[in-house]
């Protein structure tokens, strides 16, 4: 794990957290950034909510709880180490909570297929949302429905105006992850003119657009990870796409591009994706937010890796599926910095958010409430 925190391996976190990477990371970040205390979030209800969200992520090869944890970590780095939050000005805590929650739920109950498949097959989600971003709309609605239950509504003590702002932001941020609907979010002229001065406070529209850009970049954050971690994510994505292709074959449908298991998959199209989508988007973003330059630098290294492989193997090489464990061995497990030490120097909570953690939080809250009554 790199000392600067940009290079992150969510697979290692999944191992050390006993399969609870998302709830463990989310709880640690919310505590470390003092958001639980500031917004008076119920720790017990929050812990139950985080566990429920994590349990709602199916075991898809790519769109799984580990991916959500990876996106959450990337969002955190962009907002803090990348200084995006500082440039936004205003109340950064609202922005942080909104973008953390968006990353947390952005693929909740993902079906392992894309929106077009849902629309083509007449899936209930496509019918419910009139073919408009059915998966993203479901992620949002299902997550907020969890908050309707008393045991998982951690916002009970939070100001209603703040809750309204956060809900509006979460809706817009998660919807922005639908690449077909939103496309690549351009850097707006007013934002581009700011350069890196970071003076004043952005108006609400620019603020929201910036957070959408953060979310979109983070959703593809593995493109800027260490080569071995990035390659593993691409293999997982390829397998998930092949599984959709298998479903299309079984249903007698035309097989979507890059989803035919008998042909080259996404592992043979990465160089083009970097050139057409990834690098231009990161270049535009880092022009304004230079603190995120390490992401662009690593993405360029990964692009060179794919270009070199394409040169050596040629386009005629068969696309590898996901079989067995990754060829490279991973190094020793190292916890992410935010899970190693708390801000006050004390040990941060690194244990998974288990029922025992929930019970302890409930006991602490009950004791505090009893103390207030005395």
TrEMBL record:
The keyword Cytoplasm does not apply. Coiled coil: none annotated. The active site is at 63 (proton donor). GO terms for molecular function: 3',5'-cyclic-nucleotide phosphodiesterase activity; metal ion binding. AMP binds at residues 63-67, 107, 219, 270. Residues 1-313 form the PDEase domain. This is Phosphodiesterase. It comes from Haematococcus lacustris (Green alga).
């Amino acid at each position: 794990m790199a000392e600067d925190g940009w290079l992150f391996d969510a697979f290692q976190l999944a191992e050390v957290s006993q399969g609870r990477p998302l709830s463990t990371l989310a709880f640690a970040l919310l505590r470390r950034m003092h958001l639980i205390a500031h917004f008076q979030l119920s720790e017990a209800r929050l812990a139950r909510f985080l566990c429920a969200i994590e349990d709602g992520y199916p075991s898809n090869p790519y769109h799984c709880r580990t991916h959500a944890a990876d996106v959450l970590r990337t969002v955190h780095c962009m907002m803090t180490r990348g200084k995006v939050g500082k440039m936004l000005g205003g109340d950064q805590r609202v922005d942080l909570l909104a973008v953390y929650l968006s990353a947390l739920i952005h693929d909740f109950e993902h079906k392992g297929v894309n929106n077009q498949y849902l629309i083509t097959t007449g899936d209930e989600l496509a019918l419910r949302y009139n073919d408009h971003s059915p998966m993203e709309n479901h992620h949002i609605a299902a997550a907020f429905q969890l908050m309707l239950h008393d045991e998982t509504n951690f916002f009970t003590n939070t100001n209603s105006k703040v809750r309204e702002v956060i809900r509006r932001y979460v809706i817009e941020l998660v919807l922005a992850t639908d690449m077909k609907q939103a496309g690549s979010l351009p850097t707006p002229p007013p934002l581009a003119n700011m350069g890196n001065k970071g003076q004043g406070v952005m108006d609400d529209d620019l603020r929201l657009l910036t957070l959408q850009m953060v979310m979109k970049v983070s959703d593809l954050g593995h493109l800027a990870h260490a080569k071995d971690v990035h390659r593993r994510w691409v293999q997982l994505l390829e397998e998930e796409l092949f599984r959709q292709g298998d479903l299309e074959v079984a249903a007698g449908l035309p097989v979507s591009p890059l989803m035919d298991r008998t042909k080259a998959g996404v592992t043979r199209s990465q160089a083009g994706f970097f050139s057409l989508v990834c690098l231009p988007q990161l270049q535009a973003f880092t022009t304004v937010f230079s603190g995120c330059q390490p992401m662009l630098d690593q993405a360029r290294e990964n692009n060179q890796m794919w270009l070199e492989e394409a040169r050596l193997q040629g386009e005629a090489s068969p696309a590898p599926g996901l079989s067995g464990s990754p060829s490279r061995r991973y190094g020793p497990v190292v916890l992410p910095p935010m899970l190693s030490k708390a801000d006050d120097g004390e040990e941060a909570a690194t244990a998974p958010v288990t029922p025992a953690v929930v019970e302890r939080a409930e006991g602490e809250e009950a004791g505090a409430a009893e103390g207030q009554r005395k």
